[in-house]
Amino acid sequence: MSKLFLESELLPLTRERTDRPFRRRRNGPTLPPRDASGPSPAPASPEAPAPGDFSGDRDPVRLYLRQMGEIPMVNREEELRLAKGIDLARRRFQAGLYESPAVALDVLQLLDRIVRGQISWTRTFGNGYEKTDETETAPPSLRSVAALAARIRRALRSSRKQASPPWVRLIDGMRIDMTHLLPLLEGLENRAKRLRETARAGREKRRIRLEIRETPRQLEARLQGLRRLRADYERRKAALTSANLRLVVAMATRYRNMGLPFQDLIQEGNLGLMRAVERYEYRHGFKFSTYATWWVRQAMQRALADQSGTIRLPVHIHDRRVRLGRASRRLAQELGRAPTREELAREEGLATSEVDRAVSPRSTLVSLDATLGETGDSTIGSLVGDRRLESPESGATRSFLKERMVEVLSTLDPRSREVLSRRFGLKNGKPDTLSRLAHDLGISRERIRQIE
Question: Which CATH number among 3.30.70, 3.30.300, 1.10.10, 1.10.3470 corresponds to the domain 313-361?
Fold first, then answer.
């Protein structure tokens, strides 16, 4: 890990070795070697930046990596302490949220949607179904979910003013994912907002009071406590996330030059890291970095599949091409030559036609918004002609011909001019028939032919 940033010539991750000089930086002078036996030398000038001052660096990636280098790494004990703190903060936030009867009603609506098949059970309870005294095993079927919803309804009807509502243990055992908990908090916030806006006693205010089963003062106090608990949870989660940002950068270097900028890879990996922090279970005994590696890798691979190409391919097609590429390199090393498509199909257990569709050569795709030249003033799209539009030469010829025809027709008598204009569609672009002209002008069709 100490050589992770040597490619960018940035600050090293560890600072134990101070007996060697710093490397030359691309946009700065060579710093003198630090004497490990004495104090650090004074800055060369008053304008030299202080530690942690990155205002002089304008490269966002370099600035991000330098700031990340200031974050200390954590060992196994500190990682376990942070994970336990996150789990404790999450449980406190969940317990405080579930004590609200209005939130319990929202959870019932969530369970009803699961029973109707509108949302997935595994996505709603992503952290697993925890065994408690109230819920001994995970619900194996939708019938068990409906039975659990019925137990929560009975608990809501039977107990209204208890220090520890019985429905809290029922809901807490389900381990609802945090992505569904935040909308529950937002729903409680919206009820409090509507209650404040409804100044006078009315039907709407009574309905909200029946849902929350609390006075406005009690609801505000509950919301303040929930905000503090959520802020504590986010703070602890950010601490574990920041301590593992180096893992994202290390994995992002493996996917460079594959279609996404380096900073986009880091951003997508950070999103996967944040998701890993939310889903991590320290009780399973494995290290957080082992667990987070899968989430970070999946986030980067999905971003490459969705955003790397000009035209987005389905994920399964992209994954198949990746697998075939790996199999091709592996067979090339074993056989000493490029494998045939039949050998690739046999190696991956696919039909030859599927391999042909996956590895068939594609035309080079170019974005119409791609800039041209060094200045980038024009794009490829500005140089592509639109066949639906008339060319300037054709337009000029048509305009000149129309003017000449008007001059020629002006030499004829009014009846002949009307016949020719309508017969050849010179007025509205639609030629009239002989019958229509004969009827409108009161002359025979033979006379119209003579005029033509």
Answer: 1.10.10
Please identify, in words, the CATH class of the domain defined by 244-310. mainly alpha
CA distance linking residue 240 with residue 291, whole number of Å: 13
> Residue 317 is encoded by which pair of tokens?
């097609």
CA distance 424 to 260: 59
Q: Is CATH 1.10.10.10 correct for 411-452?
A: yes
pLDDT exceeding 90 applies to what percent of the chain? 14
Residue 3 pLDDT > 60, yes or no?
A: no
Q: Kindly report, residue by residue over 273-303, the tens digit of the pLDDT.
A: 999 998 898 888 889 999 999 999 999 988 8
DSSP labels for 362-395?
A: -PPP--TT-EETTT--EESGGGS--TTSPPHHHH
Q: What is the DSSP string of 124-147?
A: HTTT-PPP-SS--S---SHHHHHH
Can you give the length of the chain in residues? 452
Lowest mean pLDDT among 3-12, 324-333, 363-372, 403-412: 3-12
Q: Which helix (H) or strand (E) holds 372?
A: strand 371-372
- Residue 26 amino acid letter: R
Q: Which of 348, 342, 302 is nearest to 325 (CA)?
A: 348
Fold identical between 244-310 and 313-361? no
Q: Are 12 and 69 in contact (CB under 8 A)?
A: yes
The secondary structure element, H or E, covering residue 378 is: strand 378-379
pLDDT tens, 231-278? 999 999 999 999 999 999 999 999 888 888 898 999 999 999 999 998
> For the chain, which residues make up each domain, given as ranges?
78-242, 244-310, 313-361, 411-452
d(CA 306, CA 319): 11
The whole-angstrom separation of Cα 258 and Cα 5 is 20
177: Cα within 13 Å, side-chain hemisphere: 17
Neighbours of 22 (CB within 10 A): 14
CB 210 within 8 A of CB 122: no
Describe the crossing of helices 245-252 and 216-243 by its angle, rounded to 10 degrees: 50
Residue pair 381/369 in contact by the 8 Å Cβ criterion: yes
Q: Which residues contact 361 (CB under 8 A, 6 or more apart)?
A: none
